[in-house]
Amino acid sequence: MKMPVKQGTALIDEIDQTSGDSPALWWLGQSGFVVKCQGMVFYVDPCLSTPAGRVRTSEAPLAPAQVINADLILCTHAHPSHMDPGTLPAILQASPRARVVLPKSTAEHASSIGIAYDRMTTTDSGLRVEFFKGGPYSRVYSVPSAHPELDWTPIGGYPYLGYMMRFGEHTIYHAGDCRHYDGIVDRVRPYNVTAALLPIGGENNFDIIGAAQLAEDIHARWLIPMHYGTFADDSLEIGRFVDHMLGHRPSIGFKVFEPGERWIVP
User: Fold this and answer.
1) In this structure, are residues 35 and 97 in contact, taking their beta carbons and an 8 Å threshold?
2) Contact, 133 vs 39, CB < 8 A?
3) What is the pLDDT of residues 178-210, one digit of tens each?
4) CATH code, domain carrying 121
5) Which of 183, 184, 189, 260 lies at a CB distance of 3.0 to 4.6 Å from 6, suitable for a disulfide?
6) 8 Å CB contact between 74 and 44
């Protein structure tokens, strides 16, 4: 099993001690990231347990109960590796001020896995969540993701979302599970994406070429691949991604993470 670069309390300490106006990111495996900027700490799609029917090939960098520093937890949709019943209730207990941001149609499901309604902030495409921590603040905008379709309903809205985390002049786009659909470029490009976190593994997600094309079309400065290399059924040779970026997308920066690794956006 692959071991994280940093894990446990050492990783929490590194997150707490990292400061600055440029976003810092840590990969938790699969689609999970920590994003910190100006003292605000967001966890996105943390999956720190092993959902039923999955086999881990990479150890989780954190145990859920070790996450004592979460301000917001963003869940893109209700699937267990994105809204993990083995992770979220324990994080909420360890981080008593944290709230979970999630698609409005998933609130009932979230309650069923142990997330109290008073710890939820529901959202949908076209809405924004504002988070203030002293003087600094962030805006989290939502855009639809197709997994594999948009599946919009009049009452529930979009069940699969991507999040634009805006910190000052920086926007971090986390697409959740997503594949291309008509209109996605027009929805995302106005946000001037600094770094796009896009899935390149798993069924019903972008392939390598599709993720790179979206990053190019939205004028993202950086592309960060995710949703691979954590569970046995999402195996992918990451060297293919590197070869494609070097050979065909020289204008886009890219970062390939190791679990538990920190990267500060240049």
Assistant:
1) no
2) yes
3) 999 999 999 999 999 999 999 998 889 999 999
4) 3.60.15.10
5) 260
6) yes
